[in-house]
Design goal:
The model has no long low-confidence stretch (mean pLDDT about 90). This protein is mainly α. It is built from 5 helices and no strands. It comes from Haloarcula marismortui (strain ATCC 43049 / DSM 3752 / JCM 8966 / VKM B-1809) (Halobacterium marismortui).
């Protein structure tokens, strides 16, 4: 994988860890949830889209792809925690990217993947 993606993933991962530590233990916090989608989840999915649709198609190794997906799921965990929900599974970055292309909205993608908040 290109160094530019590695650096960006490292930053997104570090920010997700710091975010998890600073979450308000008294949900719901919809404003913070939107901030997490905008600052972490969206950029993580966008990085995958960029790598797959940019001028040169990036091939992720198995470990790199797992890392990317883990970071995206860390952001979704933080998002759900803002509503007092603990997610039981993991979500596919490819599915998230396809939904983002269809909806053009990170919030819609998070809601469709996780069901949080309940509608």
């Amino acid at each position: 994988m290109s160094g530019q993606y590695d650096d960006r993933l490292r930053v997104l991962s570090r920010r997700a860890e710091q975010t998890r530590e600073s979450l308000d233990p008294d949900p719901p916090d919809e404003e913070r949830a939107m901030e997490l989608l905008r600052d972490g989840f969206g950029p993580t999915v966008a990085l995958y889209c960029e790598a797959r649709t940019g001028g040169s198609w990036v091939r992720f190794s198995g470990a790199e792809f797992e890392r990317l997906e883990r970071i995206m799921n860390d952001w979704l965990d933080c998002y759900a925690a803002c509503y007092g929900v603990e997610l039981a599974g993991t979500y596919s970055v490819r599915a998230a990217a396809e939904l983002l292309v269809d909806t053009h909205n990170a919030r819609d993608v998070a809601v469709l993947l996780t069901g949080v908040p309940e509608q």
